């Protein structure tokens, strides 16, 4: 019993540390309804002449360009939504086989059916199409329906074939593939025996190996028939089996197959099988897509593999993934996160370090074993694996340093180190360790402890000296002084350092965010960053392959540097096929490159990295102008719409990295210059004016050249009012309108000048009249009588004074009459002198006074001359002079807005009584004087816009109580100055 327990214990232990051999993983992408696919159940896939991939589903068909699905259903022209099969002919037509049996196809962006294409009118009698064949030149096309009858389509009509094919089944057509070229890759049959061909031999055991060149050529040249889970090469003379599923472990029936160069893909109702290098004689089967019902397989022109499924959408395997091998937690590893990688070249054992202290080993046969190196709690990742002694490697974890024997595959603990960061081995094998805040020399048995910095990396120069990288820069140390000192005074070496490598006398320094520095003799001689093409400035590890290549692991891929010329050779990223851009480690073994990422291990032949340099196919998707969308065409002609935006939407057929496609467009017509680069596939032109334009668009995918330009000729036709003749008429009308307006303006100017001249003339006449009125003969006559009276009375002195004042007044009147405006002070002085003479003449029978508003003193005010004097004269002569008693005259001056208010108030006999007493001559004289004043006010208004006013009020009749006299109010336009 104890021996039994012992045996069971070891069997359990072996089970825990090893797994069966796993094949390389494949990165497979799934497209489903959420991505735009019409349905998760896909019956078939086909690639058309332009390069689009088409998928048939129960709810229509999907056309795929690598980025977008364009779905078509019955509303778009399909005869039925349930499309069970489809095929593409050599003329570019995609034929749809629907359950209702009505033929239809897609060509030139239109689905053709019996409603829009009379050549497809046909009564199917409810039998649907199953297979399609075409002639050598693409015409005619034969269809075989579910009633085992053949149909012929010659481009003009579709009819039941009457040339001896009616009643023949698919085997008849397959046996004559030189005449009837099959449009399907493989045909599933219930039996191979053709009653119409009794001489055909059925050979179920392959007489030749599949790697025989002639047999392989036959398989590729002639139709392949699927019989349950076996494959046959079908000819008229014989049908020879070349694959028997049970011999390969495939028990279920085969649904479809794909011949991929040397590889064979087999789809069944349970899984997808890949037999790599089948036609080279290899016998290794890879089972993929477990528990998936495979409905069809397609290899496109680029070598990508498309797998359609029943209920699980479409799977896509890029061609370049066949150049890579992948390992993660789905095919043998403990987890998908990998921290370190190394290979023992003697035993060919691959060592893969992961988290939780797990070491994975994979031998040359692909057997993977797992070891737990440390059970310490907390984070315990295998940070570094590096060669040590013969058949041994060093493995550094977060908490310890181990030695691992690659022959016995047994680990042994060398030293526990808390928060270990890096390990390096000197040329003679001395081990140095960088921990969180200390440096340990294991063979010299010393520690530099309690450093006030975080130690991140270490690199040996020789057996006694080494460099130390920290969070605040680079330091140098030796076994003799055991002190960290800065090498030189270079400020560049004070960056946070992630990893160090000493290579042929140069120190390569990987920083946390400044890229790579190269130091020689304590001086920085080279700096490489993203500006020089480095994948990222955040370096995570440096690896030197020993033959001239330095690999920089960053958070955005791997950069390969030639250490001799210190130049970046290339970058390797997820766009090239890596599982992730977050790179933790790199290892090179001859021509094989291993890259550890946060999403698994990727290994491939480093010098055989696939690059798809073929430019993409670019196509015009649609054209939008204004609110309308138009089908794609080489020429676009449309009538101009005001403020309408023109948009051209383009697409490319790119299945690998469609998001990396760049576009360039050119609207200048010059294919050498004027290109504008954009990532958008929509090119807008707002408010495109009438004219003829040529739009050129080209595209390029990741690492490819630019495609040939796709040309679009655009003609925006002008409206009638934009035609040359319409513009000529409008221009002529515009000129006539301008001439009319100019003529009208000139006429107005002439009329204005004429009115101005007339106004000046009338003003001069009125001023002359006013002067004449001022120079009243009665005033002069009476004044002279007064002088005569004074002389007779022997009052010669008073007479002389009167004459002097009279002369001064006359001179002042003459001077004022020549001016348009005089100051208010001059007017008051003139009126005062005039009133004084009138007092003498009328024997001091009245008194007068001026009342001025205080604000008038703040300005210099100018008024037209000889406006107030006639009013004052009338007040004296006709109001105060006839009065029997002494009278009073009051002259009030005030500002009202921008006008001067003047009131002449007398307590004479009044306006009405004066008019009664006056003679006819006096009335006429008075009326003339007042009308002249009114005319002058009106003329002044026409020049400066100010409105004057004259009003005569009889106080007795106008409600001033018992007061007699006349009040004259006048508003005089003025010019005001500070």
From TrEMBL:
Chain ranges passing through the membrane: 724-746
Pfam families, alphabetized: His_kinase, Reg_prop, Y_Y_Y
Species, as recorded: Chitinophaga dinghuensis
Gene Ontology MF terms in the entry: phosphorelay sensor kinase activity
InterPro entries for the chain: Bact_2-comp_sensor_kinase, HATPase_C_sf, Ig-like_fold, Quinoprotein_ADH-like_sf, Reg_prop, Sig_transdc_His_kin_internal, WD40/YVTN_repeat-like_dom_sf, Y_Y_Y
Keywords on record: Membrane, Transmembrane, Transmembrane helix
Name of the protein described by the UniProt record: Two component regulator with propeller domain
Any one GO cellular component localisation term in the record: membrane
Two component regulator three Y domain location: 655-716
PANTHER family in UniProt: SENSOR HISTIDINE KINASE YPDA (PTHR34220:SF7)
Every Signal transduction histidine kinase internal region domain range: 767-845
